[in-house]
Amino acid sequence: MSVKARLRTIVNGTDTRAGRAFDWAIIVLICYAIATLTYETVPALSENARQFLWISEVVITALFTLEYGVRCYLAERKRDYLFSFYGIIDFVAVLPFYLALFLGTEVVVLRAFRAFRLLRIFQLLKLFRYTRASERLLSALSECKEEFILFFFMTLILLFISAAGIYYFEHPVQPAVFSSIPHSLWWAVVTLTTVGYGDVYPITLGGRIFTFIILLIGLGVVAAPAGLIASALSRIPETEDD
Amino acid sequence: MSVKARLRTIVNGTDTRAGRAFDWAIIVLICYAIATLTYETVPALSENARQFLWISEVVITALFTLEYGVRCYLAERKRDYLFSFYGIIDFVAVLPFYLALFLGTEVVVLRAFRAFRLLRIFQLLKLFRYTRASERLLSALSECKEEFILFFFMTLILLFISAAGIYYFEHPVQPAVFSSIPHSLWWAVVTLTTVGYGDVYPITLGGRIFTFIILLIGLGVVAAPAGLIASALSRIPETEDD
Amino acid sequence: MSVKARLRTIVNGTDTRAGRAFDWAIIVLICYAIATLTYETVPALSENARQFLWISEVVITALFTLEYGVRCYLAERKRDYLFSFYGIIDFVAVLPFYLALFLGTEVVVLRAFRAFRLLRIFQLLKLFRYTRASERLLSALSECKEEFILFFFMTLILLFISAAGIYYFEHPVQPAVFSSIPHSLWWAVVTLTTVGYGDVYPITLGGRIFTFIILLIGLGVVAAPAGLIASALSRIPETEDD
Amino acid sequence: MSVKARLRTIVNGTDTRAGRAFDWAIIVLICYAIATLTYETVPALSENARQFLWISEVVITALFTLEYGVRCYLAERKRDYLFSFYGIIDFVAVLPFYLALFLGTEVVVLRAFRAFRLLRIFQLLKLFRYTRASERLLSALSECKEEFILFFFMTLILLFISAAGIYYFEHPVQPAVFSSIPHSLWWAVVTLTTVGYGDVYPITLGGRIFTFIILLIGLGVVAAPAGLIASALSRIPETEDD
């Protein structure tokens, strides 16, 4: 067995102990990368903490770059990997560091640099690659794909009707809060998802009756997809037992 | 094949490529009409934007009028189409523009004109006409129609009991907020749907215990229809596979 | 057929046209009684409105008393009806009026009179008597009775753990808001039902992490009964088709 | 039958009348202990109330200690009971009282003493031991254990993405509210669970659109576990009937 074949067993497979250990190491590394990214945004960090974060950053990027290189080397068709979904994610995960390094962002483009950093959120998607359980969810989701699309469009339509209706009722009384239909859409989102922050709410009788009617219809539309996922998932284990 | 028959295949059918293209063109046109209607309510628009909206308005109305005419022409019994649900919607969608045009509303009846405009929301219902996926939802809904009516009445009864109860507990302490049972109904709607804006809430011990009991019962009543839709929908694909 | 037997067919049965008409008449009367009760609490009513409400009150009570008498007369065992669930409700529905009349509450015991009035909410329970659809819901509920009791106790335990935990975290920082465990229970109710008025919320790091953990566990516990009702109801129609 | 064997039937079994009575007595005692613990936190208690609570405390601890001793005596392998889940709970339930007694906490370590007291919340877990209905729920939960773990990780990932995203959009405008990603996590928790206290909410257009997208995806992820419990539970009774 050549070195390349052995490496393939470790990096791509989950059958051997080494293969599983590699997958878990990558998951731990991603979690650590996310933890440092989160910690970095805390205001007024000490000099020591910043230095520690910088070293972490270098080590994480080095390891991710190494992984990217190995995956490239192991891929039978390099182009297929490079332009695959995960190939792009792996690339995007290391890009911000090198961009920040070569463009010298420490002083001038600091804010833009931060925005690039947030691209690293895509590293989280890697987690899905390393867990088999997600495959079952994906098949459950694909089973009721059409219903999701239908409910998505119904949600959009309902949001617009809600926004237009509440604008009609509340705009004359609260012109600052419900200043236009696009602004009223925020109220529609917050209300139909039942989040209800309380920053915008109707005060007229018409607006309140309208809210009641919209909620009666809307709760079913917005909450149904969660029920669909649950019932699709609860059917899949049964068929897998066969 | 006559011109009328060919037109019928395009306008009413979805089997040919031209038929599907026509349907999608109408959907795009409705979405565009909604987008301009939304944009129009933004306060302090520039002169250019207004002119652009006016031209859009004319073009949209012209196309909708054309579609209305063609559908009229193609219908075997003109009266059936004119007084059908979609016939009325198609008519109402173009009505506000002509009303505004012929009654000269630019200065005097501006506000009423806006109210007429909102009738165009009904255009959204057209979207349902142009998607087949909605048929499955409709059959799922009709399957558990009785349950919906039952839960609807239970919701109304529960809302009234909630409003009367909270009025009894909170009126003596918060006479301005819970001024009457009709006013307390707003609290009942916001609480039982779990929106919870925070504009009205009980502060007495009795009112809070009452809220807890009502929520224990009410969450099931208000949330159950969403579960019913989900389970009805998840049963339908199975029967369609046969 | 005797008068008594014919009356029984009308009052107790739903097979004849007259029986259904009687049931619907009672439902309309109850709805009207509720509407007047609601309207009565509106502050600053005109003299005309009050007079109208008073006449309505007399007519409603007369009709309900008549119904109560007829039911008494028709019952085979008078005692069984008088002490049955609906017998008590029928009695309680007419009681407040006579109490108010004979005790002369117009001036002195006005407030207590209002409290008596709210007893009329029990009239709403009559609605369940007059709808057959509710039987199916009752059988669905009785099917998963044990689960409801289990979830009810789990909700109570979870509420107490939430209240005690948040009291521990938030009391030192917000002593006025989270003054004791009983007060913290209000926060627990509002949070676990996801109503979230915003009158009480944690501000410490510990309290917020605790809230997150409690919500992760609690959402399933509080929302599950709604799902149970839905799935129990969606199974019943199938068995009835046999 | 020896005394030890008879005691075992009462303490561990639920088949005899005495066994069930013992279980119910323990449940009542736990509920009473919780009630006194709750009452104790009410500020400004009278001297009588405090004395009553102190006596209750002594009696409860004595009875729990007795139960702990009996269980120890009855266990075939003492070590197995002492280090079992419920053995530890039984020990922890009586510990705070003795710690408070022997360390003399009345004046100095009063606050720490209170913290110890809250450990008694674990007594609530005993309730699960004394109800058989919970066994069915546990089997339902274990049936969809993998899905719960998957949704738990998806919730964590979604919370982080939400927090990072909203930080990016809202930090420049509301630097005090969305000061860092860890702070933004609180917003993510409150929003995705649809609690929506209203203490933190986005005000920028980008943040609001981001909230809408995150909610569309997140409602399904956060609400699905409740549906899973419901459908797993509704399947179990059927299989038990066989």
Notes on the structure:
4 copies of one chain form a homotetramer. The first copy, chain A, is mostly helical. Chain A folds into 2 domains: 3-130, Up-down Bundle (Four Helix Bundle (Hemerythrin (Met), subunit A)), CATH 1.20.120; 145-241, Orthogonal Bundle (Helix Hairpins). Chain A is built from 11 helices and no strands. Chain A has helices spanning 3-11, 17-40, 47-74, 78-82, 85-103, 110-117, 123-129, 133-143, 145-170, 181-192, 205-241. In chain A, helix 3 crosses helix 5 (85-103) and helix 9 (145-170) runs antiparallel to helix 11. The two termini of chain A are 36 Å apart. Residues 106-120 and 238-242 of chain A have low confidence and may be disordered. Chains in contact: A-B, A-C, A-D, B-C, B-D, C-D. At the A-B interface, helix 9, helix 10 and helix 11 of A face helix 2, helix 8, helix 10 and helix 11 of B.
Descriptive terms for the model:
about 240 residues; Four Helix Bundle (Hemerythrin (Met), subunit A); 11 helices; 2 domains; Helix Hairpins; mainly alpha
SSE arrangement:
Four copies of one chain form a homotetramer.
Chain A: H1 3-11, H2 17-40, H3 47-74, H4 78-82, H5 85-103, H6 110-117, H7 123-129, H8 133-143, H9 145-170, H10 181-192, H11 205-241
Helix pairs in contact in A: 2-3, 2-7, 3-5, 5-7, 8-11, 9-10, 9-11
